[in-house]
Design brief:
elongated; Replicative helicase inhibitor G39P N-terminal domain-containing protein; G39-like_N_sf
């Protein structure tokens, strides 16, 4: 999410909850600092859900997507590596290299 999208997000929140938010540069900067790693469309989707279920404006915490372990794509590779290692299909040299990298 870039600064323009952050400003658009805050304007959208203000449309749903008029007068509950100070729309100024410092507010945009603060929200951007936290939300810059978020996908704009996903944040808008979460805002829409929030609006349907709550009568108060969302905070950054309400709209920020928290990392979830089940979204970790590396775990599948790690499980496959463990399986190979357990049945002895990983060469000893490769095992040593993996341990040195950690």
């Amino acid at each position: 999410m870039d600064k323009k999208e952050t400003a658009l997000l805050l304007m959208e929140i203000d449309r749903f909850f008029p007068g509950k938010l100070k729309l100024e540069g410092a507010t945009v900067e603060a929200w951007y600092r936290v939300m810059k790693t978020q996908d704009y469309k996903e944040v808008i989707r979460r805002l829409d859900l929030h609006v349907m279920h709550h009568k108060y404006p969302p905070t950054v915490h309400d709209l920020f997507e928290k990392p979830r372990p089940e979204h970790n794509k590396n775990i599948l590779k790690q499980l496959a590596d463990w399986e190979k290692e357990s049945i002895g299909t990983v060469p000893v040299q490769q095992k040593l290299q993996q341990k040195e990298e950690c």
